[in-house]
Amino acid sequence: MKKWAKLLCCVLMMGFALTTCLAGCATVSNIHNSSEELIYNGNSAVRVDGYLYYGNAYADYSSFSTVSDYRTSARVSYLARLDTNAYEATSGDYSPTEVDKVANEVAGHGNDFMFVLGQYIYYATPNTQKATDADGATAQYFNYTTIYRSGLNGNGKTRIYTTNGEVSEMEVLKAGDTYYLVIFAGDTLVKIDLSNNNAEEIVTGVSSVAMPETYQKDKLGSSLNFNGYIYYTTAREETSSGLTGNVVYRVALSGGEAERVYGANTDITLVDRKRDVVFYSETRSGTAEIYTADVSDTSSTLNPFSTKTRFVSASSITNLNTVSRSSENELGFRDLGYVYTANEALRYSTLDGTKSGAITLQSEGSEITSYAVLLVSGQTMFVSTSTGIYRVDLSQAFNGNGGNVTIDCATVVTMTAIQNSGLYAYDGKYIYFYAQLETVEEDKDSSEEETDEETDENYYLYRANASTLDGNYQLLGLTNIESRHTTEE
Question: Which of 80, 101, 303, 317 is deepest in the core (most CB within 10 A)?
C-alpha cells in the first residue's frame, strides 16, 4: 500500500511539474533588471543591463495564410536574447552562437513593439487566434496584434490582450505612479494597466487619436511628462442641430468619464502629438490646414482647439519629430522645433514658426530618396533606405536663417538589402536594424572543388555604431546557415 501511495505521489508531482512547465518554464538563465522605470529602445529591440532582447529575424505577416505559416516563420523570427556584455564580434558577417531563444512567438514583424518594465518583458506578435470583424465575419487576422508578457528568462508567459483590429498606434505612458500600455487598433482605444495587466476598452467608434510618444531615455528630448489625458475624435452624435463634422474628446489615463473638448462644424483629424502639443488637420470650405493646440493647461474653462495656431498648409503630416538641444534646465534639454514630412517633402520649423523650409538630404553629392525616418535624438536624425543608414545633422537647418536647406549626411552603414519600413532600436551607442546577409568570401584551398554558397534570404537583426562611419555593422541574428556562425577559438 505504501508503494502505491508513493507511486501515486510521484505521478501527481510529475503531472504538476508538467503543468507548471506548460504554463511557462524558464527558457534561458534569469537576469535582474536594476531599473525601476520603463526601458524602451525602439520597436525592434530592448536592452536590459547589457542583455539585448530582439526579434531574431523579420517576418512578413502579410504573407501568412495559415497558422502553419506563422509557426514556420517563428522558427527564425522568435524572441531572442544576447548577452552583449560578453559578446565580442569577430566579424560583422557572422552570427554569434551565444544567441538564446526566449519565446517561440514571432517577435520580429511590421507591428514590432517591445519593452521591459520591472522584471518582465512585454512584446507584440501577429494574432494567431480567429477573430470577428466589424461585420461579424470570423476569420484569421494576422494583422491583428497579441501582447505577451513573460519573465526576463521566458518564465510565466501570459497573453495580455489581443486587438480587434489592426494597430495604428501603441505607446507606453505613465500617469501618476502607474504605467499604461495604450493601443489604438481598428476604431477602438484600449488601455492596459501594467500594475495588474487589466485591459479596458475605453471607447469604440474612434476615428483618430493623439497621445504622447513612449519615453526613451537614450533619445535627447524624450520625456515622461504630459498632462495625463488622451485626445480622440468620434463622429458627431447630435443630428437635430444640423451641424456636421466630428467631435474631439479627452479622457484621463488614470480613469474617469470622457469629456467633450471641441466640436466645430468642421472635419477634424488628430495627426500627431509631441508631449502636450496636439497636431491636427481641420478642413474648412474644402481647404485642409494643419494646426497645433497646446493642451498643457487642463482647466475646463480653456479650449485650446479654439485658440489654435496654424502650423503648415497640408492635409496631413507624417514623420513628426521634436528637435532639441542640451540644456541645464530640469529636463536636460530645450526644444527648438520640429522636423516632419508634408506634401511629400521633408520640412523643418522652429517653435515660433519664424524659420521654416524644406530639407534635401544628400550623400556624396547625390540626393537620398525613398528613405524612412527612424528617429531624432537632439539635433541628430537617422534615416534608412534599402541599402543604407544615414546620420543627419539638423543643426544646419535650425542654426540658419530659414528657408530651404540641403544637408550632407554621414553614412552609418551600407548594405545590399536593408528592411526599410522604419523598424529600429537605439541605445545611445548602437542603432539596430534588419538586413539580409552579405556575401562573404570563404578561404578555399585551390585543390578543393568549389561549391555553391548556401542561401538564406531572411532579414536578420544587425547593429551599427551610430557615431562612426560606414562599414561597422555586426550581425546579431542567428542565421540558418551554420557556416555563418562564429566559432569559439
Answer: 80
Instruction: With CA atoms as reference, report the closest residue to 188 among 131, 115, 244.
Output: 131
The pLDDT tens digits for 161-213 are 999 999 999 999 999 999 999 999 999 999 999 999 999 999 999 999 999 99
Q: In 3D, which of 455, 439, 461 has the Cα closest to residue 93?
A: 439
Report the first-to-last Cα separation within the chain, whole angstroms: 58
Q: Which residue has the higher pLDDT, 266 or 404?
A: 404
d(CA 408, CA 396): 10
Which residue carries 534639454 as its cell? 333
- Cell triple for 19: 503543468
3 state SS of 20: helix
- Can you read off the three cell numbers belonging to residue 22? 506548460
Instruction: Give me the residues paired with residue 359 across strands.
Output: 405
Residues 460, 57 contacting (CB under 8 angstroms) = yes
Q: How far is CA 399 from CA 211, 342, 393, in A?
A: 29, 21, 11
Q: How confident is the model at residue 19 (pLDDT cuts 50, 70, 90)?
A: very low
- What distance in Å separates the CA atoms of residue 117 and residue 211, rounded to the nearest whole number? 20
Q: Record the cell numbers describing residue 73, joined without a space.
A: 516563420
Cα distances (angstroms) measured from residue 156 to each of 101, 147, 238, 431? 15, 14, 48, 30
Whole-number Å distance between alpha carbons of 438 and 369? 23
pTM metric for this prediction:
0.90
**Cα separation, 107 vs 344, whole angstroms:** 31
Report whether 191 contacts 181 (CB < 8 A).
yes
